[in-house]
Each structure stands twice: as C-alpha cells, then as structure tokens.
Amino acid sequence: MLVFSSPKGASVRCEWGDKAVVVFPDKIEKANALLTLCAQPEEIPQEGIISWPGEFDIQNIAIRGIGQNEGGQVSYSVEMDDVRIGFLSAPLQEWQDHELELLGNIDVLVLPSNNPKLVQKLVDEIDPRIFIPVPNGDEATYAEILNVCGAQNQEAVSEYKVKGLPVEGREVVVLKKG
C-alpha cells in the first residue's frame, strides 16, 4: 500500500512499507527517506538524491527521470508496489509525444498547479486513475484547478492511502500541507 502526504511547500512524500521517497522538496536536505527526487539537476550527485534524467532501480523502486528544457528540468515516472506514479515538475511544461511515451501509463499523477489549462490538457492526455494537484504558489490558480477537476469543495486530507485503483473514472485527491 502506498501512502501520499505533503510535508511542506510543493513537496510530496510517498511511502511504501519501510521505504519513502520525497519528491520536489523546497530545499535539498537529508530527508527522512530512502530517496529524494529533485526537479533541477545537481552538479555534484549526492547519495540518496536523484536529479538527472535516466533510469534507476533502487530497492525495488523503478525510477525514470525525464528531462525537459534541454535537461534543465526533470520530471519522474516511479513504480512502487506495482503502481506507476507520475511526478511532473514545476513550472509545468507542454509535453511532447515522445516525453509522454517515456512517462508511460500512469496510475497516479502528481502535478504542480501553475497553469489550469495545461493541467487539464495533461490530465486528459495522461488519463490517470488518481490525480493529486499540488499547490505551488498562487492560491487562486490552485482553487481554479480544483474547480476544473470537480474537487473545489473536497476536504483536504493529511495523507492518502492507495489501497487499489479506481476501476472507472478518476479520483481527485487534495492533500493538506504538513
């Protein structure tokens, strides 16, 4: 079972058993996690931090870093517990067909909320079973995204447990900031 939470800022924490992955932390620090995934490449790689495009397999967690803006921005496809999660980095970019192919079939999609039209387009193209919008700045824009995806009055939860994927439709999850 996967457990999603949002400790602070635009970061997301995903736990699977005794393993945890922190994605897009506000500042890089040795997190209480197996791995930290960063949106911008670090010049000097550090243990436990992935910040470059490429494929990685660490303790049964398959990770694909997908570079955009000539490798200056990295998004991720992560497979844990037979669930494929897409973590798209901010600022949100247009995705080309070959980038969408690299991302693959996504079960859970985590997107920054800086462009409502682009968020809607990417959610439609990627078609995840579970969608988690993450606020990264403007509250009005985040509220507009919640409105567009039908979650404007949905109560925020401190953590979300993926016990199974919805068979039909799409579930929208609003995470409370830690």
List the helices and strands and how they pair.
Layout (H helix, E strand, L loop, with lengths): L1 E4 L6 E5 L2 E5 L11 E3 L11 E2 L3 E5 L2 E8 L4 E8 L2 E5 L9 H7 L4 E5 L3 H11 L3 E5 L4 H10 L10 E4 L8 E2 L6
Parallel strand pairs: 3-4, 4-5, 9-10, 10-11, 11-13
Antiparallel strand pairs: 1-2, 1-12, 2-3, 6-7, 7-8, 8-9
How would you concisely characterize the structure shown here?
The protein contains 3 helices and 13 strands, in the order E-E-E-E-E-E-E-E-E-H-E-H-E-H-E-E. Helices cover 16% and strands 34% of the residues. It has helices spanning 97-103, 116-126, 139-148, and strands at residues 2-5, 12-16, 19-23, 35-37, 49-50, 54-58, 61-68, 73-80, 83-87, 108-112, 130-134, 159-162, 171-172.
Structural commentary:
This protein has 178 residues and is α/β, with parallel strands linked by helices. It has a single domain, classed as Metallo-beta-lactamase, Chain A, CATH 3.60.15.10. Helix content is 16%, strand content 34%. The protein has three helices and 13 strands. A seven-stranded mixed beta sheet has the order 6-7-8-9-10-11-13. Helix 2 links the parallel strand 10 and strand 11. The mean pLDDT is 90.
Which features does this protein show?
178 residues; alpha/beta; Metallo-beta-lactamase, Chain A; seven-stranded mixed sheet; 34% strand; globular
